C-alpha cells in the first residue's frame, strides 16, 4: 500500500503544477480508482490446495487433491534460486512498482497497435497472480480491466513478499502441478526447499507455456528456455558467471515414477474421512479435496495393517466374495481401522459405510436389551420348539426355524438363547413385547431406516450398514448413547487454524440404560462359554473359541446371503461382514459362512496382543451371580454346570439348583467388597 500512496502523491504534485482540465480529471480518476479498490477491501488469497490426511500417530497417511496437485509453502521455505529465477524472467522490477510496469505496458501497447490485436503481454507478477486467483485467461480488454483492479487491491493490502509467495504457490507448472512445491515433487521428487539452481531455473521457465516448455514433453525446448533464464539472472546480478556456467553444465535427473500409482494407506478409511469432513464443515467433497485442509484422523496404522492382513489370509483368491470390516474404540467411538472391500483399485465402493445388508442375528442383543427394559431378566424362561406366529393383515402365519431344525423342546433362559442363537426364543420375545418396541430400540442405538415391525425383524431381515452396527454395539459396550463413531479428531486449515475438533457428547438424559446395557454386554460373552451349550446346539463361538486368549463378547449373524460377526473387548469393538455384491446371491459354501468369525478372531487377537487384559466394570445397580444354565436357578453344590450372569438384584432368582431351599439375596451379598463383581468376571 505504501508504494501506491507514494506514487499517488507523486501524481498529485505533477497535476498541481500543470494547468488544464485534463490533468485534473486524470487526478480525479486516479483517486476514484484508488477509493474503489480500498472500499472493496483485501481480496482473499485462498486457493485450492492438496488436503493432507494424518493418522493417529501424526504421520501423513494420504493426500487428496481432486484432479490437481497443489501445496502451499511459506516464502521462507522456498530456495532463493527459484525466487530470483522467476523475478529475472517474469518481472525484474517487481519490488519497485505497485503492480503495473508502465514501461513494459507502453512497449506491449505499441506492439498490439501495430498488429491490431492483443499480441504481446506485459503482465507483472501481481497481475498474473490476480488472474490465477480470480479470472479467466481470455485475452479481452474487459478481462484486462478486471485484472488491473484485482492487482491494485493486492498491492494495496498485501506486501511484496506475500504476493510473491502467493504467485509461486499458485502458478501452473504443467502435468496437473500448481505451485512450486507440487512442481518440485512432480519433476524431481523432492521438496522445493531442496531445489538446486539448475533445477530451479528449469522450473521457472515452464509457466510461460506449461505444455510447450515442460522438460518431460520436449527437453530441448525446456533446456533452451532454462539457458535464457540463467543468462537473465547473470545479466541482472542474481548469479555470477561461474554459477551460471555450473548450472548450465549440471545434468538433471527427473522423477522416474511419472504415471505410477502408489498404494495408499487405508483408502476406504480415507474415503470416509473426506465424506465426514464434508459433513462437519458443511461443504462438498471436492471442496475438501482441494481445500488445503490438514485432517487429523483416528486411524491406528497397526490396527489397519492387522485387519487387512487377516482379510487377505482368510478370503481365497479364487472367490469373488466381498468383505467389509471396522475396528472402533469402545470408549470413545474412534474408528481405528476400516476396510470397505477386498481391493480398492477394483472397486472403491465402500461396503462398510455405503452398503446396507440384512443383519441377521446381530440384532438380538438389541431385542434382549428391550426385553430387560420391559421387566425380563437373563434367566427369563421361554419354550424352544416350533411355533407359528400370526401376522396382522396376512392369512399365512410366520414360521421361524432354528439352524438345522434343532430345538431344545423345553424352556431355556434368555442368556442361553442368546449364546446358541435360538430363533424361536427371539421371535417369541419380540411378539410378546410388541414388534414396535424393537423398532424403537434400534433407533435408540442410532440405527436409521424404515424398519417394519414384522415378526422377522427379530431375526435381522432389515438392512443396516456395518459402520452403524459397530457403532450400535459400541453404545451397548459403553452403556451410553454418548458414543459416536467417528474418523476425524481435528481439522485445520493450511495455517493450522482449528476449524473442527472432536469433543465427546455430554448427555443430560442418556436414552441408553447403562445397567441394562451392561447386562446384555455380559450375556454376549456367552457365545464363547461352553457352560451355556444347550442339549440341542453349541454356543455360536465354538468354531473360534480356540483362537481366543482373553475375555470377549459378541454376536454372529447369518442369512442366506450375508455372514456377520460383531464382537468386543473392554477396549475395542470389531465388526466383519461377508457377502456378495449381488444382493440376492447366496453364500455358496459352508466356509463362506465362517470367514467373518475367523477374520474377527484373528484381528481382535492381533490388536490386543500388546495390551494388558481388562475387565468390564459393572455399574453399581447390577450384581454378578452364578446360575445353573439349565434351570435358571442359582447355582448350588449339586449343579453340574454354572455360569456367571449379571442382573439387577431384584431379578436374582431365589431358588437354588438341586435343592428346595431359597436364599436371602440381601443376606447373601451384604458383605461382598465393591470389587468382587469385577474380580469374579476378570478371573
The low-confidence parts are: 115-121, 679-683
Biggest sheet strand line-up = 2-1-5-12-13
How many β-strand runs?
A: 18
Helix content: 25-40%
Roughly what fraction of the amino acids lie in strands?
Answer: 5-15%
Overview of this structure, please?
The strands form six sheets. A five-stranded mixed sheet has the order 2-1-5-12-13, covered by helices on one side. Strands 7-6-16-15-14 form a five-stranded antiparallel sheet, sandwiched between helices. With 683 residues, it is of the alpha+beta class. It is built from 23 helices and 18 strands.
Give the arrangement of secondary structure elements:
Layout: H1 2-17, H2 21-40, E1 51-54, E2 60-64, E3 69-70, H3 80-90, H4 102-115, H5 125-134, H6 141-157, H7 160-170, E4 177-178, H8 180-188, H9 197-204, H10 219-235, H11 241-249, H12 267-281, H13 285-289, E5 294-297, H14 301-314, E6 322-329, E7 335-339, E8 357-358, H15 364-373, E9 381-383, E10 411-413, H16 414-420, H17 423-433, H18 435-444, E11 463-464, H19 466-478, E12 488-492, E13 498-501, H20 514-523, E14 553-558, E15 562-568, E16 572-579, H21 595-608, E17 622-627, E18 643-648, H22 665-669, H23 676-682
Parallel strand pairs: 1-5, 3-4
Antiparallel strand pairs: 1-2, 5-12, 6-7, 6-16, 8-11, 9-10, 12-13, 14-15, 15-16, 17-18
